[in-house]
Amino acid sequence: xxxxxxxxxxxxxxxxxxxxxxxxxxxxxxxxxxxxxxxxxxxxxxxxxxxxxxxxxxxxxxxxxxxxxxxxxxxxxxxxxxxxxx
Length: 86
What we know:
Layout: H1 5-13, E1 19-27, E2 30-41, E3 45-50, E4 59-63, H2 64-68, E5 72-76
Antiparallel strand pairs: 1-2, 1-5, 2-3, 3-4
């Protein structure tokens, strides 16, 4: 797993447009699981377009800090299920 925010952003930049599974901490022992496509990366956040069949809204965004603190885990479809960003 990347150790800095810049490394996380570079890693995500290499996966733009790819399908992913996202697991986020929803608070109070809740885990949110979503499937979508990594659409864009910005200076402080990244945007995921969600599958419309499974979700009520079109897209979500998270900060790179969420990945660094392990509040969000991302697994890309072409990687093994246990992998978390390079």
